[in-house]
Amino acid sequence: MKNTLIYSTLIISSLIISGCGGSDDSTPVKNQENPQTPNTELTEQLKQKIIETSAQSHILAAKESFAFGMVDTALYGVDEVLYADAECESGQYKIVNNQIDFNECGGLFYQFEGDKHQSLVAKSGTVINNDGDYTFKNLVLENPITFETKTFSGTLKSLETEDSAQVSSESFSVKASEKNGTGFRNVAYLFENYQLKYTLKTPTELNISSNGQISVQNSAVGDYKIKFTTTDPLAIKVNQDEEREGLPYRGAVKIENTDLKSTTLITSIPNTYNVQYQVLYGNQKLVDNTQTWTKIFGAEK
Prior knowledge:
13-stranded antiparallel sheet, 4 helices, Lipoprotein
């Protein structure tokens, strides 16, 4: 049976689109420590590079930490096939033993893009299910509007109990063709030592913890590598069906750029849907302001 602790992405989307919450109550937040000690002088050029890279990388890490990023995109459609017996709106898939082969299958996969969920077409590729271990072999998902694609390869492991669920991977890659003006840019993402864990703390509160490394090549801001972790689990309200409702009202995410030696801190302001957003270089604060979760997730400019 499909575990709603993991597969509740579509519940959250409408709340993000509507800009849920947004109190201006800027309750002081205790800053997290920055363990990185840079040994390069902070020039104006380096400062701008750090800020620009953080502006992109924090969205990537925040989405994965909150479980509606690329890993969730890959898992959701496969789960629809295996546990919901969902049919393609167009195209087809074929199951032989524990192997699923996709052919122009539309309507099962989604990705969070801007301020909405976009339905994707599984153009081709194979997913093998081995007791909760999902091996992706060049699963190609296409946005039918922009014609952007993502190709997934690697293994995701799923482990579930009555009140918790975990997704992990030693190595999982995504090769993306992303819009770049009138053309396309080929961007490569490599997830390593990735782990996402859900714990139902109470009948009305779900906690999400994550950590991992993501290497990115040929992005709009160049190559970079980040390490991210939830230093304080993200707390989300859930309904009686254990489906997520709303945005985090507690929690913190730390994102370390291992190349630039900078740190981005995203810290939820208690009892609001706002966060304290900081970009640090050693002990120097390059950015320190209040933002909404919707902006952190890239759904608000």
